[in-house]
C-alpha cells in the first residue's frame, strides 16, 4: 500500500516573510525549493520501493539519545528531546511508505535502575509528548493513528499511567495506522504475565487432586493471546540504532523471523536512508522469510 | 470508433508506463545491491585469507574470558550438512570456545547428536551444572536445541506452573498465586529447557534472525549474522568473536 495522497507542498513555516531583505528572501526561497525537492525525491524513492513488498510492522529500539547529548555537548534531557523529534520524523516516513504498525522501545523495566532524576525527566517528557500527540493537527490526526502503551503499566506513576490510558482511549477509534509504545516493558515480564493470564483464564470447575492431570493443558496460542503485543502481528523488521547487536529483552517471543538491523547512527541521527536500506534488504530476503513463517 | 479505441489504448499504456518504469528502476537498484554484496563477499574472502595466514596480528590474541557461552543458529535445511557443522565446531575448538549451544528450528542437529559427538571425541553433552564446573582445556560442552526448547518449552513450563496453581488452590491458602520470572526460570529447568543464556549468538542463514531460539535465553545476547553455512569461513568467525570481546553493555542503566 503506497500513500500518495498529497503532492509535495510548501509548509507555512517556510513562507518567506514580506519584510525580509533581498538576501534573506533569496535564502528563504532556496530553502523552500530544497524542501520541495526533498519531498519529491522521497515520494519518488517510496514509489520505487513500493514495487516490492513493504513491511507491515517495523519495531525500533531507540538507542543512543544519551550518547548523542554527550557528543553534541548538550544536557541529557536534550538528547531525549532530539530522540523524540527523530521518532516523529521516522514515523512520518514509515506511514508514508505504507507501514501500518510501528513499535518503539521507549522505556524498559531495567531503565528504572537509572538515576532517579533521569527517570523522572523521561517520565515528564513522556507525559508532555503524549499531550502533544493528542492535540489537533498532530501526527496522530494526520495518519489516523491508534496508540497502544504496551508493558507493565502498573509500574508507572499514576500521572503517567493516566496520560497513557487517556491517549489509548482517545485514539481507540483510529485504525489506519498503529503505534505501539513499549513502556515499563521487558519481554520476560511480558511472557510471565501472559502465562499468569493463561493460567487464570484456563477455565475449570473445582478440581480434585486426582483429576489435576486431566485438566486441559495450556497451549502456545493461549500464551500468545495474552501477550501485551497480541494487538499487532509479529514485526517484519527490528531496527536498533547505535550499532548494538542485541535485542535487550525486546520482543524476544515475536522476532523469530524478524531480521535485526543495527545501523551505527545514534537514534537522533537516524535518517530516511537507513530506512530505505533496511526495506531494500528486507525485500531481498522476503521470499525466504515468508517461507519460514509459513512452516509449522 | 478507431480514434476512441486508440485514445483508450494510449491512456492505458500511459497508466502502465510509470509502473513499468518504476519496476525497471526497482530491479536496477536490487541489481546494484546484489553486486555490492558480491563485492563484500570478495572482500570477506581476502580478509579470511589474511586472518588465516596470520597477517592480521590483532586477531592473534583474544580474551576468551568474556565468551563463556556461544550459540549457533543454523537454518534447518543447511543443518543437514553435518560435515560443515563438524568443521565449524572444530574451528571453535581451535579458537578456544568451551561451551556451544547448537540450534535449528526443526531439530535436525538434535537428531544428528550421536554422529556429531562420535566424530568430536573431545566434546561432551551438556548437563545441568556444567556451566559452574571447571573444564580441562580440551573438552567442549555441546547442547542441542530446537523449537521444542523454545515456545513449546515455555508452554510446558506454563503447564507445570498451572498444576502447581491448581494444587495451591486446593490447599488452605486461597490467595491468588502470581508466578514470577524466577519461578518461570525454575519451571523451564524442570522441563529440561533451562540452559544458560548465550553471550553471543551466530546466525548461519540468509537473514539475521534467531529463527525461534529459546526466547527466555536471548535477553542480552549479541546476535551476529555470518551468512550461509555453505559459504562459512574461519576469518569472519574469528573476527566476530574478537569484536564481541570488545562490546560493553549497560544492561538498561
Automatic annotation (TrEMBL), chain A:
<dbReference type="GO" id="GO:0005783">
    <property type="term" value="C:endoplasmic reticulum"/>
</dbReference>
<dbReference type="InterPro" id="IPR036424">
    <property type="entry name" value="UPP_synth-like_sf"/>
</dbReference>
<protein>
    <recommendedName>
        <fullName>Alkyl transferase</fullName>
        <ecNumber>2.5.1.-</ecNumber>
    </recommendedName>
</protein>
<dbReference type="Pfam" id="PF01255">
    <property type="entry name" value="Prenyltransf"/>
</dbReference>
<comment type="pathway">
    <text>Protein modification; protein glycosylation.</text>
</comment>
<comment type="function">
    <text>Catalyzes cis-prenyl chain elongation to produce the polyprenyl backbone of dolichol, a glycosyl carrier-lipid required for the biosynthesis of several classes of glycoprotein.</text>
</comment>
<keyword id="KW-0808">Transferase</keyword>
<dbReference type="GO" id="GO:0016094">
    <property type="term" value="P:polyprenol biosynthetic process"/>
</dbReference>
<dbReference type="GO" id="GO:0045547">
    <property type="term" value="F:ditrans,polycis-polyprenyl diphosphate synthase [(2E,6E)-farnesyl diphosphate specific] activity"/>
</dbReference>
<dbReference type="InterPro" id="IPR018520">
    <property type="entry name" value="UPP_synth-like_CS"/>
</dbReference>
<comment type="similarity">
    <text>Belongs to the UPP synthase family.</text>
</comment>
<dbReference type="InterPro" id="IPR001441">
    <property type="entry name" value="UPP_synth-like"/>
</dbReference>
From TrEMBL, chain B:
<keyword id="KW-1133">Transmembrane helix</keyword>
<dbReference type="InterPro" id="IPR036424">
    <property type="entry name" value="UPP_synth-like_sf"/>
</dbReference>
<dbReference type="GO" id="GO:0005789">
    <property type="term" value="C:endoplasmic reticulum membrane"/>
</dbReference>
<dbReference type="GO" id="GO:1904423">
    <property type="term" value="C:dehydrodolichyl diphosphate synthase complex"/>
</dbReference>
<comment type="pathway">
    <text>Protein modification; protein glycosylation.</text>
</comment>
<dbReference type="InterPro" id="IPR038887">
    <property type="entry name" value="Nus1/NgBR"/>
</dbReference>
<feature type="transmembrane region" description="Helical">
    <location>
        <begin position="20"/>
        <end position="43"/>
    </location>
</feature>
<keyword id="KW-0812">Transmembrane</keyword>
<keyword id="KW-0256">Endoplasmic reticulum</keyword>
<keyword id="KW-0808">Transferase</keyword>
<dbReference type="GO" id="GO:0045547">
    <property type="term" value="F:ditrans,polycis-polyprenyl diphosphate synthase [(2E,6E)-farnesyl diphosphate specific] activity"/>
</dbReference>
<protein>
    <recommendedName>
        <fullName>ditrans,polycis-polyprenyl diphosphate synthase [(2E,6E)-farnesyldiphosphate specific]</fullName>
        <ecNumber>2.5.1.87</ecNumber>
    </recommendedName>
</protein>
<keyword id="KW-0460">Magnesium</keyword>
<keyword id="KW-0472">Membrane</keyword>
<comment type="similarity">
    <text>Belongs to the UPP synthase family.</text>
</comment>
Amino acid at each position: 500500500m503506497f500513500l500518495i495522497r498529497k503532492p509535495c507542498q510548501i509548509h507555512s513555516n517556510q513562507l518567506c516573510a514580506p519584510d525580509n531583505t533581498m538576501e534573506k528572501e533569496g535564502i528563504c526561497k532556496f530553502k523552500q525549493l530544497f524542501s520541495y525537492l526533498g519531498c519529491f525525491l522521497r515520494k519518488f524513492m517510496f514509489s520505487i520501493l513500493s514495487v516490492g513488498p513493504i513491511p507491515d510492522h517495523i519495531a525500533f529500539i531507540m538507542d543512543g539519545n544519551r550518547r548523542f547529548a554527550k557528543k553534541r555537548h548538550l544536557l541529557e534531557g536534550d538528547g531525549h528531546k532530539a530522540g523524540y523529534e527523530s521518532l516523529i520524523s521516522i514515523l512520518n516516513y514509515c506511514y508514508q511508505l505504507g507501514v501500518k504498525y510501528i513499535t518503539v522501545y521507549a522505556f524498559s523495566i531495567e531503565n528504572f535502575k537509572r538515576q532517579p532524576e533521569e527517570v523522572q525527566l523521561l517520565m515528564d517528557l513522556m507525559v508532555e509528548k503524549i499531550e502533544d500527540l493528542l492535540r489537533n493537527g498532530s501526527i496522530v490526526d494526520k495518519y489516523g493513528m491508534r496508540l497502544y502503551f504496551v508493558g507493565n503499566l502498573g509500574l508507572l506513576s499514576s500521572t503517567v499511567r493516566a496520560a497513557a490510558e487517556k491517549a489509548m482511549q482517545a485514539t481507540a477509534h483510529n485504525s489506519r495506522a498503529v503505534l505501539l509504545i513499549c513502556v515499563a516493558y521487558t519481554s520476560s515480564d511480558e511472557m510471565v504475565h501472559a502465562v499468569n493470564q493463561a493460567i487464570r483464564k484456563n477455565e475449570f470447575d473445582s478440581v480434585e487432586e486426582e483429576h489435576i492431570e486431566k485438566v486441559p493443558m495450556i497451549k502456545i496460542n493461549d500464551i500468545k493471546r495474552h501477550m501485551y503485543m497480541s494487538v499487532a502481528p509479529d514485526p517484519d523488521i527490528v531496527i536498533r540504532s547505535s550499532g548494538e547487536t542485541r535485542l535487550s529483552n525486546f520482543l524476544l517471543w515475536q522476532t523469530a523471523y524478524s531480521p535485526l538491523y543495527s545501523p551505527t547512527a545514534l537514534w537522533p541521527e537516524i535518517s530516511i536512508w537507513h530506512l530505505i536500506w533496511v526495506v531494500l534488504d528486507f525485500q531481498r530476503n522476503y521470499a525466504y522469510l515468508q517461507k519460514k513463517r509459513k512452516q509449522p | 470508433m478507431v480514434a476512441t479505441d486508440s485514445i483508450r489504448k494510449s491512456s492505458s499504456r500511459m497508466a502502465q508506463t510509470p509502473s513499468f518504469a518504476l519496476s525497471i528502476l526497482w530491479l536496477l537498484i536490487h541489481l546494484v545491491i546484489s553486486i555490492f554484496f558480491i563485492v563484500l563477499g570478495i572482500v570477506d574472502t581476502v580478509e579470511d585469507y589474511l586472518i588465516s595466514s596470520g597477517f592480521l596480528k590483532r586477531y592473534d590474541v583474544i580474551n576468551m574470558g568474556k565468551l563463556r557461552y556461544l550459540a549457533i543458529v543454523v537454518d534447518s535445511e543447511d543443518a543437514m550438512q553435518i560435515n560443515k557443522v563438524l568443521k565449524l565446531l572444530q574451528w571453535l575448538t581451535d579458537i578456544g570456545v568451551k561451551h556451544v549451544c547448537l540450534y535449528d528450528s526443526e531439530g535436525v542437529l538434535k537428531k544428528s547428536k550421536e554422529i556429531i559427538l562420535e566424530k568430536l571425541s573431545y566434546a561432551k553433552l551438556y548437563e545441568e551444572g556444567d556451566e559452574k564446573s571447571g573444564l580441562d582445556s580440551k573438552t567442549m560442552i555441546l547442547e542441542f536445541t530446537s523449537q521444542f526448547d523454545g515456545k513449546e518449552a515455555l508452554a510446558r513450563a506454563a503447564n507445570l506452573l498451572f498444576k502447581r496453581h491448581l494444587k495451591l488452590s486446593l490447599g488452605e491458602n486461597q490467595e491468588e498465586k502470581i508466578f514470577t520470572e524466577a519461578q518461570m526460570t525454575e519451571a523451564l529447568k524442570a522441563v529440561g529447557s533451562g540452559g544458560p543464556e548465550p553471550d553471543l549468538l551466530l546466525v548461519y542463514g540468509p537473514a539475521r534472525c534467531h529463527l525461534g531460539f529459546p526466547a527466555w535465553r536471548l535477553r542480552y545476547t549479541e546476535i551476529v549474522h555470518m551468512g550461509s553455512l555453505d559459504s562459512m569461513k574461519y576469518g569472519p568467525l574469528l573476527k566476530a568473536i574478537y569484536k564481541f570481546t570488545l562490546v560493553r553493555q549497560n544492561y538498561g542503566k
